[in-house]
Amino acid sequence: MTSVSTLNINVRTLLNPWTGAYGGVPPFDHVAVSALVPALQTAMDEQLAELQVIANNPQPPTFANTIEAFENSGRALDRVLTIYHVYTSTLNDKPMQEIELEMEPKLAAFQDAITQNSALFKRIKAVYDKCEQSALTPEQKRVCWLHYQSFARAGALLDDPAKETLSAINQRLATLYTEFSQNILKDENDKQIVLDHDTQLAGLPSADRESAAAEAATRGLKGKWVIANTRSSVEPFLTYSTQRELRESVWRNFVTRGDHGATDNKPLANEVLALRAQRASLLGYATFAHWQLEDTMAKHPDKALQLMRSLWQPAVRRVHEEVADMQALADKDSIKIEAWDYRYYAEQVRRERYDLDANELKPFLQLDKLREAMFFVANRLFGLTFESLGKKIPTYHSDVSVYEVRNESGQHVGLWYFDPYARRGKQSGAWMSEYRRQENFSGSVSAIVSNNSNFIKAKAGEPMLINWDDAVTLFHEFGHALHGLLSNVQYPSVSGTSVARDFVEFPSQLLEHWLLTPEVLNRFALHYQTKEPIPQALIDKIKQAKNFNQGFATLEYLSSALVDMELHLANADAIDVSQYERDKLLELSMPAEVVMRHRIPHFSHVFSGDGYAAGYYSYLWADTLVADAWEAFVESGNVFDPDIATRLRDHVFTSGYQQEPDVAYRLFRGRDADVQALMRKRGFV
Ligand SMILES: [Zn+2]
Hints:
The protein is mostly helical. It has helices at about 5-15, 35-55, 65-70, 75-90, 95-115, 120-130, 140-155, 160-190, 205-220, 230-240, 245-255, 265-280, 290-295, 300-330, 340-355, 360, 365-380, 470-485, 505-510, 520-525, 535-545, 550-570, 575-585, 605, 620-635, 640-655, 660-670, 675-680, and strands spanning about 195, 225, 385-390, 400-405, 410-420, 430-435, 445-455.
């Protein structure tokens, strides 16, 4: 039994400023899940009280007594939310899911209580109206604008009945988002494919067999094999299994997540779309997409659509070529290529054409070495060093490790947490989170960030080997981490990765490129047994095969991105999403051999929150910048060119959201990005 006083202590622990070295660290060793709800409640109440003081200030509104005071509010809530989000994303068990379902609508209502506080908004608007003519710094002016527009975009200018409707919509959406993501988690956790005989593993590399056996063991099915319904288990199976019927079962299981039964997400998606359309109209926008893109680098849905459409035909043509190449091999097996055959035959073609077997690479891709490789890149580009802190810093799971990051003068920069392994209750995929944002406003506060992946653990005593795509993803997420760590701004609201959605993937996607450089591969792609570096011949093969299967990769992404954008431009209040998906793909002449990377019923980017809704195009948008930026390094003849790296650091990695992203890009590159660079990068010219 937990006594009231113990609970109070647990709540205070979550609310209080973090203690210990580095300006304090998250108290992961003292988290009681039962304390999360009361702590969130208290923290929200505290911030509302703080904001009331700002709103009721009898002094005339100034930047200091209004905007800065606002920036400084809600510190306790930030701390509790950090812990809460770690638990919802990486330790999401049954009790946590109940907490999430209870808290998400309350957090939405809390946000509305802030943006609908008219006395507070009046003061923010008063400061904003005078800010351009004031003596404020450019960053301060930017922060004024940011707060004003985020209030206005959230409905602060509406009348009271409209505000009430808006708030009801937001709370309902919060519940729908939570249910949507919990349904996917359920389908990923529970709908596995069990294999009873080792003949069913035919074609699988030994590491994948072992993972399947380990997966079975954790589910109490010792002696069997389990193909979990997650991307990290499904994709290797589809690539290597020679058992076509099983490939089809595994594929169907995966692409129908959230599509039927108790976890059917389609009605939720329908309702989300209707509510978003209603909200956009209430806020005075043509569609949700128009509202969403206003605050991005693209600015308007047409610009995003234009980019996506310019790539569609070249990608479709490439897919037809890829299918023809694969069909030539499949004919020998008397098979007509279907969607569940794509990865398998693509791998066969790759082996034949480039003499490149993805498994040949794996012995050279040790997770530990790749982590060192990322540290090396961060050092060569930005002068950073990383040092393991061992067990000195509390973590929420024994798999998590913590590193201190320093700059070239040895000064503390921040902390990097690394949580590499899959576990039940952990969201699939890979991501970065910011536990604490850098700022100089309330003293010099350093960033605390984390990278998360879902590697399936190697057997005890064996090295953790990963595949090439996962190595690329590792570098990607590390790019986000560096963006958070290197931030050097005054105010938290413009710090680190708090930039436009279609700009935030620029640093991360750019960082991927340093993996495939001789400087990195020769040092860190070492064979786990012989310690020999990866042979040059193999590097050459990777380079030659770089544009291989780009048709498939581009189209599975682009179909999802286009459907996302068009769904949100349709503005209909009753869309049957399955019908819509079928019709749209037909209209686009989507080749039958490719399936959307994220079908609507499990499109978390779009339906587990507002974040990437009408925003999945962002990866492509950012890739246009990336392709152009990488050419700058390549053309210089030195991928670590110090001048270019310095410009990249000063105008992209450290500057947060202090300026418009197109301005930041021009400062870095000296001009706008050239879209042709993207076509060259994907081999479409
Ligand atoms: Zn990313």
